[in-house]
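seq as requested:
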Amino acid sequence: MEKLFGPFYVIIQPVSFLFGAFILGLIVYFILITIIKPLIRQSKTSLDDHIVYYCRKPVLALILIITIHLVIPLTHLPSALVVFMNQLLSILMILTIAFLVIRLTKALETFFLEKYDVQIQDNLKARAVHTQIRILKQIIYAVVTVLALGMILMTFPKVRQLGTSILASAGIMGIIVGFAAQRSIATLLAGIQVAITQPIRLDDVVVVENEWGRIEEITLTYVVVRIWDQRRLMLPITYFLEKPFQNWTRVSAEILGTVFLYVDYSVPVFIVRKELEHILSQSDLWDRRTCVLQVTNTTDHSVELRALMSASDSSKAWELRCLVRERLVDFLQKKYPGCLPRVRAQMENVQEPIY
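struct tokens:
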């Protein structure tokens, strides 16, 4: 063979071995897929489908790296080039394993989240599970990334020696790093605490910084609140552990809405109450739990009426309040215009004395 190719044998021989290793890796991968597919079809769970879907590419890359790594000693390449290729393959293997762990985490996330639909009416438990799993996923991603970078750096001899020197003075370095990263570590711990205690969940309705909105995204360091006018309010994760805020869906999405009317003393409260019941009974926004009309205050000019109604969530409650306010005002204008607020004045005709 060496006589046949002459000087090109030095190049052709290692290339052919590497190409053969590549083909062998593909064959092993396709055999593995062929064996696994019938087992997946017989399985009653969708977990294996998700694992195969998300992990097939990193598994293929890992098989190719292993087969090439096994063939390198047979190529008779220069020792310096062999060392370089072994280190390169080690780095690629570390990255591939890290990518495999990340994709496996994504498969598990998809499997668990598909069991909890946040689009249903009573989605409290689903939102809690979504929040915990997504924050846990971010923690795994961060840990895997840090470990992968650390292992890659340790493949370099000079960096390994530096690491040994650093470990010798780990006490001093730990104190310095602890002071320098105090706020960063506190933020990460706050993110973990939010995932466990869950003062907020994804899609919770909250009032923060005098803004009404929904929790759109929760990360380890910040929270995105989607405000009602489609603006985004970015808050540090520690905000929800250190400052008071309103959570309208902490236990349930059900909520009470109020409408205030200011009318004249001559208003027939009983008839207005009947009209409120009529308006709510015709609306799909009302959940039929609460319907109350009360006189809550009186002044020297008007009477304050409070209409109290219930809805299944805050969005429906807002629309229901607007509807009731509009219908009641229209009812008073058409049926009892004299009951609208007015200012009374009495004029007396006093004759002045004639001198």
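DSSP finds eleven helices and eight strands in the chain.
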